[in-house]
Amino acid sequence: MKKILIVDDEPNIVMSLEYTFKKNNFEVFIARDGQEALDILKKQLPDIIILDVMMPMVDGYTTLEQIKQEPRLENCKVIFLSAKNKETDIKKGLSLGANLYITKPFSLKKLVEQTQELLN
User: Fold this and answer.
1) Cα(60)–Cα(114) distance, integer angstroms
2) Hey, what's the signal peptide range on this chain (predicted)?
């Protein structure tokens, strides 16, 4: 079973992502901000992380920078899922090492397909 960490501070998004990925046979971990995500990553090694950019405490960009400094997470794929949709935001996310940058609103079906493509 593949493991996914969903990092977002918007409860409705977290609920729909959690439900959808569990239905698609993922083990799901949830963090509400970047610091909580980093704490979970000390104990868990997910195959993929879905990461929001705008969050309290530690934002998604900073979280990704921390993830990229951790050698044991080097094979972990990261997808930014954000309402920040300017070209500069997307370029920044990808330049920090995200595998994909998807803007909100988004299609759950397409997100699952893109996630599975990244893991194959």
Assistant:
1) 19
2) none
Cβ neighbors of 44 (< 8 A, separation 6 or more) are 3, 5, 29
Which regions in the chain score pLDDT beneath 50? none
How far apart, in Å, do the first and last CA atoms of the chain sit? 13
Strands (E), the chain: 2-7, 26-31, 48-51, 77-82, 100-103
**pLDDT (0 to 100) of residue 50:** 98
Ramachandran area for residue 25 (φ above 0: left; ψ -120 to 50: alpha; else beta): left
Task: State which H helix or E strand residue 19 sits in.
Answer: helix 11-23
Rounded distance between C-alpha atoms, residue 38 and residue 58, angstroms: 10
| Nearest-angstrom CA–CA distance, 40 and 36 | 6
Give residue 38's pLDDT: 97
